[in-house]
């Protein structure tokens, strides 16, 4: 039977190193080799319902949810697929980014890059920091 070694996964939030205070830097490593480094800012605009002042009608409000600089991170390096997952406010908000490796030919020969293939944002409207008086 072939022995399988588990790769050592490591994630790091390097937001303090970004020259742009609006952006965060996130790194995913495997066996001390960086497979993903992402620098970006994000704000999510989510509509939600609240009771109108007559407590009969529902009206729509808007939550502006910024990506927190203190977000918890998880990551996974794969041969052709990698992931970065960020969560904040006790996992009330989670952003999961999936990447696919793409190869292409250049004048210097074959090269590979990572392409963002999926974005998933989940949120809990019972968390009141951004969803004030939300009707569930």
Automatic annotation (TrEMBL):
Signal peptide: none annotated. InterPro entries: Lysosome-assoc_membr_glycop. Its main location: other. GO terms for cellular component: dendrite; early endosome membrane; endoplasmic reticulum-Golgi intermediate compartment membrane; growth cone membrane; late endosome membrane; lysosomal membrane; recycling endosome; synaptic vesicle membrane. The keyword Protease does not apply. It is found in: Cell projection, Dendrite; Cell projection, Growth cone membrane; Cytoplasmic vesicle, Secretory vesicle, Synaptic vesicle membrane; Early endosome membrane. Keywords: Cell membrane, Cell projection, Cytoplasmic vesicle, Endosome, Glycoprotein, Membrane, Signal, Synapse, Transmembrane, Transmembrane helix. GO terms for biological process: establishment of protein localization to organelle. It is a single-pass type I membrane protein. The keyword Transport does not apply. It comes from the Eukaryota. Belongs to the LAMP family. Plays a role in short-term synaptic plasticity in a subset of GABAergic neurons in the brain. This is Lysosome-associated membrane glycoprotein 5. It comes from Oxylabes madagascariensis (white-throated Oxylabes). The gene is Lamp5.
């Amino acid at each position: 039977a072939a022995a399988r070694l588990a790769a050592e996964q490591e994630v790091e939030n390097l937001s303090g190193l970004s020259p742009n205070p609006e952006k965060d830097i996130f790194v995913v490593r495997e066996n001390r080799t960086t497979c993903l480094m992402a620098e970006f800012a994000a704000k999510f605009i989510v509509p939600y319902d609240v009771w109108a002042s007559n407590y009969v009608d529902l009206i729509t409000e808007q939550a502006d949810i910024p990506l927190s600089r203190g977000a918890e991170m998880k990551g996974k390096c794969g041969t052709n697929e990698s992931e970065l997952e960020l969560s904040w406010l006790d996992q009330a908000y989670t952003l999961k980014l999936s990447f696919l490796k793409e190869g292409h030919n250049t004048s210097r020969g074959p090269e590979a890059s990572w392409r963002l293939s999926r974005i998933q944002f989940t949120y809990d409207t019972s968390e009141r920091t951004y969803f004030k008086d939300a009707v569930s």
